[in-house]
Amino acid sequence: MKSYNIANYIRWKKDIELKISKLPEVIDGDFTIYNREQMIICFAPLVENLSRKFSTTQQASGVMTIMDLIQEGNSGLTKAVDRLDYSMLTESEDQEKTLKSFFSKRIKGQIRRAVDINRGDMRIPEHKLNEIRRNFGKDKKMVSMFFNSIFLSIDDKPNQDDDSAYQIPDKSEPYNMQLLNTYLKGLMRKYLNNKEYEVLRLSYGLDCDKYSAKQIAAELKIEGSSSYVRVSQLKKQAVTKLIDNVDHSQVLDYL
What we know:
mainly alpha; Rna Polymerase Sigma Factor, Chain: A; 2 domains; 62% helix
């Protein structure tokens, strides 16, 4: 870690602690009592916490020190507070969690942009950096296309009035469905919990007839008037988990 001015850091910490001690007390988790300046002061410790998660080695952050990262984080927090929708905040069941989630994304984004600018002579465009971060070196688009086409389109029905989708016949060799189903079950067993596995198995009919959402809810003992909605949520949750964990090389042969 690079050296930084200890005296300035201690002075900054004391100032923040003093200002936080003078803030009005939050009653029943209602943060709407804070104005712009008070909101910034209240979440200043979050900035330091997030800043310390970034490496300050020369290779990672260039010339930036921890104090530089905190300064950029504070800038991101200020911009986030200015964009805060208080009407949305009043509807939240847990305002502190909502605020931390909203602020954290923007604080980290501000710090990342500053690091990218100061790390070296060559600057990669922000949208490309985000693409790299999302994919982690893997082609997630292929994985997403594979699982979405199989599972999330199960309930989609073709529009009988639109013949445009059927003008070009599919002459590709059909899959060996039994082999594909067996392969899918192996991936699902590896990456999903039991409830997620059963939802996809029954929805797609991997080794049985296809079940409706209400039938799946009854089979898995999911109760309530909106049980079918929960089944839909589990289906999307399971597909997202597969997309995040399966390498594109594992589905390449089926695309």
